[in-house]
């Protein structure tokens, strides 16, 4: 029987013939296996990839490293270094997040604070960033939201429209007193004369 025909029923015969050894498996190939992964280099790449496109909080990055099984001591050391060079900055992140979320989504401070907490921003850091929002800017953001929704309330009973608009602002984190005042102004109706007041909308 030729060597070729013997391989058809037993792969190990072919392997033995190829390696010219008696064992049933080829010897390890160090070049194919490659060197051990450089854990620090891998962790750095993870961080840089995460920071491409937008800033992230320290906890967000720590969670990502943990999910990729980066040792805690290495993760903390790298995060410390990234903070030192300004690549990770929770204070700057919080300020930018506050400005963006109010401008783009019209969120009130209470709702933004909840988002920052979920992202791991310290409450004191979040509070300082939120303090930069003025009462005037909050009212204007709420007014913009109401104006965007007014078209969808046309033809509705005043009470129903008011409830919907106030409820929308409440979901964005605005207090009832501010929400009711803005809605009343924008509807251009005397809600009190219609028997509608803030307490009646609860």
Automatic annotation (TrEMBL):
Region annotation (Disordered) maps to 1-38
Q: List, for all copies, the residue spans of the domain called RecX first three-helical.
A: 43-81
Domain RecX third three-helical as annotated: residue spans: 136-182
**Which parts of the sequence belong to the RecX second three-helical domain?**
89-130
> What InterPro entries would the database entry show?
RecX_HTH_1st, RecX_HTH_2nd, RecX_HTH_3rd, Regulatory_RecX, WH-like_DNA-bd_sf
- Per the record's keyword annotation, is Cytoplasm included, yes or no? yes
Its main localization is: cytoplasm
Q: Is this entry keyworded Cytoplasm? A: yes
Out of the domains of life, which is the source? Bacteria
Enumerate the subcellular locations listed in this protein's record, separating them with semicolons: Cytoplasm
Q: What UniProt keywords are attached to this protein's entry? A: Cytoplasm
Coiled-coil regions listed in the entry: none
Task: Give the family, as the similarity comment puts it.
Answer: Belongs to the RecX family.
The protein depicted here goes by the name Regulatory protein RecX
- The encoding gene is recX
């Amino acid at each position: 029987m030729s060597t070729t025909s013997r391989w058809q029923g037993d792969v190990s015969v072919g392997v033995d013939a190829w390696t010219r050894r008696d064992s049933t498996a080829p010897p390890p190939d160090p070049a194919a296996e490659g060197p051990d992964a450089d854990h620090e280099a891998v962790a750095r790449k993870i961080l840089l990839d995460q920071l491409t496109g937008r800033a992230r909080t320290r906890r967000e990055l720590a969670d990502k490293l943990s999910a990729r099984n980066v040792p805690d001591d290495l993760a903390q050391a790298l995060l410390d270094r990234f903070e030192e060079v300004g690549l990770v900055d929770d204070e700057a992140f919080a300020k930018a997040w506050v400005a963006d979320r109010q401008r783009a989504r019209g969120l009130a401070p209470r709702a933004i604070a909840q988002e920052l907490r979920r992202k791991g921003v310290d409450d004191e850091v979040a509070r300082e960033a939120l303090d930069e929002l003025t009462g005037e800017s909050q009212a204007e953001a709420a007014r913009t939201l109401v104006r965007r929704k007014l078209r969808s309330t046309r033809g509705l009973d005043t009470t129903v429209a008011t409830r919907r608009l106030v409820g929308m602002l409440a979901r964005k984190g605005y207090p009832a007193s501010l929400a009711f005042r803005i809605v009343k102004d924008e509807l251009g109706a005397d809600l009190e004369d219609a028997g509608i007041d803030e307490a009646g909308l609860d």
